[in-house]
Amino acid sequence: MIEFRPSGLTEDEEALRAEVREFVAEEFPSGTYLPELGINAGADVEFSRRLAARGWIGMVVPQEYGGPGRSATERFLVVEELLAAGAPVGAHWVADRQTAPVILSFGSERLKREFLPRIVGGDAFFCLGMSEPDSGSDLASVRTRATRTEGGWLLNGSKVWTSGAQYCHYVMTLCRTSPQEGRKHVGLSQLIVDLTSDGLTVSPIKLLNGQHHFNEVVFEDVFVPDHMVLGEVGSGWHQVTSELAYERSGPDRFLTTFPVLRYFLDFRDVAGPEAELRLGALAARYWVLRNMSLSIARSLDGGEVPAVEATLVKDLGTSFEHDVLDLVRDLSGGEQEPGGDLFDQLLAEATVTAPTFTLRGGTNEVLRTVAAKHLLREKRRAL
Amino acid sequence: MTDELQLLDETVRAIFAKHFDRDTRAATGREFPRELWTVLDKSGLTALGDVESGAGLAELVVLARAVGRAGAPVPLVESAGLAAWLVTGAGLDLPPGLTTCAAAHPDDDLTVVRAGDGWTATGVLHRVPWGRDSDQVAAVATGEGTTFAVVLPIPDDLRRGTNLADEPRDTVRFDGVALAADAVAPTAVDQDALRERGAVLRAASMGGAMEAALELSLAYAGEREQFGQPISSFQAVQHHLVAIAEETMCTGMAVQLAVSASPEQTSFAVAAAKNTAGCAARIVTKRAHQVHGAIGVTDEHALPWSTTRLWAWQDEFGTTRDWAALLGRGVLADGGAGLWPRLSASAGTGEAG
Ligand SMILES: Cc1cc2nc3c(=O)[nH]c(=O)nc-3n(C[C@H](O)[C@H](O)[C@H](O)COP(=O)(O)OP(=O)(O)OC[C@H]3O[C@@H](n4cnc5c(N)ncnc54)[C@H](O)[C@@H]3O)c2cc1C
Prior knowledge:
The complex is a heterodimer.
Chain A: H1 11-27, H2 45-53, H3 72-85, H4 93-106, H5 109-120, E1 126-129, E2 145-149, E3 152-159, E4 170-176, E5 188-194, E6 200-206, E7 212-225, E8 229-230, H6 236-242, H7 244-249, H8 258-267, H9 273-301, H10 307-332, H11 342-353, H12 364-382
Parallel strand pairs in A: 1-4
Antiparallel strand pairs in A: 2-3, 3-7, 4-5, 5-8, 6-7
Helix pairs in contact in A: 1-3, 4-5, 8-10, 8-11, 9-10, 10-12
Chain B: H1 3-19, H2 22-28, H3 34-42, H4 57-70, H5 76-89, E1 99-101, E2 109-115, E3 118-129, E4 136-143, E5 146-153, E6 169-179, E7 184-186, H6 191-223, E8 225-226, E9 229-230, H7 235-260, H8 266-292, H9 303-313, H10 320-343
Helix pairs in contact in B: 1-4, 4-5, 4-6, 5-6, 6-7, 6-8, 6-9, 7-8, 8-9, 8-10
Bound molecules: flavin-adenine dinucleotide.
The site of flavin-adenine dinucleotide has 21 residues of chain A, from strand 1, strand 7 and helix 12.
């Protein structure tokens, strides 16, 4: 039986949080800006640099690689404040959440020295080259392939839905490094590819509301030097799946629509029995989800890899993000005007981009199937 | 869980497993399981909430959860978790025999007045758990402009009622009943405080009942075959299982948060726990029955031991809706600026889990 433990905060953690809260209150006074919606956030390189100057990017990177060596819990406390305020975290998001920890876990000494200080400084932004036109949920079926060449690899294929490739510096690319014989999970590798490489093209794919969020990335004989292979050649699948506990459990999986709710309460008259009932149940859910997510950060700090817990929290959290919108729409009533005030604009954007919440990072259907298999296996073992 | 809590959990589980197995359930049916109660009583568990014992809410949550998991029709939450706590907390002795506790029903109204050396009590307590099987009932009464903890003998002419799980919920009236001086004492626990504690413990029992429903569903899905394969291989069934697991975990977490909450957070955390358990109960009952097919709605099956309780307990010690409204009023009072600090308030020390 999976159990989550409540976790209080130490004095140092409370102090960090107070510091972040003060910073956020100065940067984002309510009503003066259009909040970003979680990881759909755009890039604001200057903002990322300001965060870096405070030591809030790549927080888990140890001092020997230029980082502050703080915990996953401390990172959690920083990012949840940013997301709750709708900060523009897009530029450094992937590097901070995922690339820094995986380079720490699997990267060679050279990769660590080369990349970690730059991530921490807000000077190296990463995107994720996993999905392809024919490989979505069935990620292990990727066909982008790297073949051996003098001093490195030649990469060919194409990636789609690559968020942020238009402004990032590197794309962490999952590809096949040996032909498939038998199990498709064997023979995959992760390559760090410079987005300015010869033979690499990035083309925008517009979101349904015209925003440029993700891209197609095409590789034509792109040369990738040997040392840019992350971890072992052929261990790509193991490495990618071990990222999932980081990728799936964080505050970005339940806070996407929080700014909508906050602006709703700030800028509309909300009252009455229906509002009480529905907001009450919503508050209870936020409280429980946040504490579950925090408890996963604590387990990561304790050296555990709570992958299934993370899967369940992502399923619950992203579904909940939709519920928040339904509630705000019901209580605010009337037609939506995307060109209205800041609240109207925010609600409109949230409404039309909501489908992304439960797709990206593994669809909820697939997450549930993964979790069910685990639960059934555990049960069989117990019998 | 700390080692002590773990040990308590194992002890209680072992008692239920030994004295309340499938056969005993089948044999006692809807009757009060005297033998089980005697064992619980002798082990001292029925008085665990005695403030002298050093057991706090965390220990009582362990008991409450075990009751829910076993689906055992015994007033352990009421006696150990509520009566012992209320009575000894007011400096009174817990009398021998079975002492149940009033359910903090919104229509309860009990007053005491001094009469010679003792007191007289007048009023009504609604839906007292296991009233008919108890020797006395602990309750909160008002009088002299303050609040008292009282222990009242159960009158003969109670009005029988039950909840959806067939657990006794009897209404008892007192019409100038004489009470000894040592049956009444001032207390800081008012009706709301009693309801809050009852709500956390009910939510804990609900979490236990959900665990049982999850275990049964996982086991059944793994062994039942249709179309030549276990039904657990069907994705629709897998998704039911995951939803049950998710809601069970949310309930467990919400209860632990209520246990570890700091004093200023308690009312929010308690309301969130009972509301979470109530919302989760709806999902778990629906989906667990769906997984089980027709066998799950039969009287012999163990699943209804969980689900009937989950249906009933949603409404006890404040309904799901009552607690939502309370939380909602807080959200509206805090406004947009207050919402995030409220939701992200640090959950106590984390030591309770
Ligand atoms: C806004 C956004 C940003 C993204 N950013 C990135 C990025 O930066 N990098 C990147 O690599 N990818 C990114 N993605 C891609 C994302 O990871 C994929 O969308 C996701 O993995 C699903 O793949 P798909 O879209 O091809 O859908 P499909 O896999 O084709 O799924 C279509 C439908 O079928 C269902 N389905 C598929 N297989 C199963 C199954 N076995 N059981 C049950 N149902 C199933 C799915 O749940 C879904 O409902 C992004 C996606 C979005 C929406």
